[in-house]
Design the sequence.
């Protein structure tokens, strides 16, 4: 089968040139984000997956003069820029997610999902992306919360919702007992069965 696998919880950004050079002629890449990224990858990996810089997130923040009010702060883009000399990957991009895909992992899934020919497979994520802000309490305690609202560029909410897969796949008791990663197997089948473009 002509595809390759990347566990985003184990790789570093400085390994991406070697990885994408090795994978450049494969039919598809499986990017496993059922973990917490080893490094922040939305921009570094986005350069290799998207030929153009396009929006992947819109975010909101507080209006400090009006407590309780929020406003749109802006959108962020990822992908290859005009000055990039890299060759972007042209195959299928299959992103694996589940309930362990939280916070920065969800943000990464949002960013990579905007690549051409990308599909998300697995189960709905935690819905816990956004920055970490803290409220101090007496006694030196503090409580974390998300200080920014995180949305898809079209305004669809992600916090409390999570990343909704394009193709839902859940592990089964039989698969777990057999030691089979059914989500990964579905990703392989998807690449195998999808016609080239």
Sequence:
């Amino acid at each position: 089968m002509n595809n390759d696998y990347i566990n985003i919880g184990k790789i570093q950004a400085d390994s991406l040139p070697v990885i994408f050079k090795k994978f450049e002629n494969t039919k598809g890449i499986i990017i496993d984000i059922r973990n917490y990224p080893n490094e922040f990858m939305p921009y570094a990996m986005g350069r290799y997956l998207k030929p153009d810089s396009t929006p992947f997130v819109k975010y909101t923040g507080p209006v400090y003069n009006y407590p309780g009010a929020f406003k749109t702060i802006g959108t962020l883009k990822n992908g290859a820029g005009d000055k990039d000399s890299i060759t972007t990957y042209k195959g299928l991009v299959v992103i694996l997610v589940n309930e362990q895909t939280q916070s920065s992992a969800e943000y990464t899934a949002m960013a990579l999902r905007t690549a051409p020919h990308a599909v998300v497979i697995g189960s709905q994520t935690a819905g816990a992306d956004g920055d970490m802000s803290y409220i101090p309490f007496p006694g030196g305690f503090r409580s974390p919360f998300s200080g920014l609202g995180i949305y898809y560029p079209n305004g669809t909410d992600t916090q409390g919702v999570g990343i909704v897969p394009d193709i839902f796949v859940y592990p089964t008791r039989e698969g777990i007992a057999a030691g089979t990663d059914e989500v990964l197997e579905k990703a392989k089948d998807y690449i195998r069965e999808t016609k080239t473009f």
Q: What stands out?
A: The chain has five helices and ten strands.
